[in-house]
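Customer escalation, tier 2.

The customer says the design service returned an amino acid string that "doesn't look like it belongs to this structure." They asked us to rerun it and document both sides in this ticket. The original structure tokens are below, unchanged.
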């Protein structure tokens, strides 16, 4: 996505959104307003919230709800914890806003594997602009900046926790 964005910019296009299977990079604005994208509810096929993106941002979500398979009735997903060799546990969805698509993609997967205890510290160190995690029990953890940009499609979920996160310069 980053290479395609660079190519479009080189050709003189400045206002666009590229969606590669739900992973998104933007440039400029959608007319007079920011780009608005949906965040999927990991427990259904519906949208959980809409999110406003600033110019030249990337949003990537790593989730455990699409690429799954069953063995002896037990469901497994494709994101493996490198320490155990088994699918990561605890987080079902990690959404990252950053400036680079490739970096945001790597960060989203890292945050999902890291879990809620480590993810926000890692996010600061990885220059993630904003982060939202959804746990297996439906708890939502996000930073203040992400919360300001989100418009939940129904009433704001009761299980929302705002985490302080300041990006290092």
């Amino acid at each position: 996505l980053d290479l395609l964005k660079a190519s479009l910019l080189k050709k003189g296009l400045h206002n666009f959104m590229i969606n590669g299977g739900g992973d998104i990079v933007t440039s400029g604005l959608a007319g007079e307003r920011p780009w608005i994208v949906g965040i999927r509810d990991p427990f259904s096929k519906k949208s959980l919230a809409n999110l406003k993106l600033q110019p030249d941002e990337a949003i990537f979500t790593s989730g455990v709800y699409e690429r799954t398979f069953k063995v002896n009735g037990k469901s497994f997903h494709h994101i493996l914890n490198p320490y155990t060799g088994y699918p990561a546990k605890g987080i079902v969805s990690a959404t990252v806003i950053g400036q680079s698509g490739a970096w945001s993609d790597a960060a989203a997967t890292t945050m999902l594997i890291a879990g809620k205890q480590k993810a926000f510290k890692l996010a600061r160190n990885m220059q993630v602009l904003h982060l939202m995690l959804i746990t297996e029990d439906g708890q939502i953890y996000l930073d203040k900046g992400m919360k300001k940009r989100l418009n939940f499609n129904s009433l704001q979920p009761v299980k929302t926790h705002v985490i302080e996160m300041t990006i290092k310069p």
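Tier 2 assessment: The sequence is consistent with the input. The helical segments are 2-10, 101-114, 116-125, 144-149. Residues 101-114 form the longest helix (14 residues). Sent an explanation to the customer and offered a walkthrough call.
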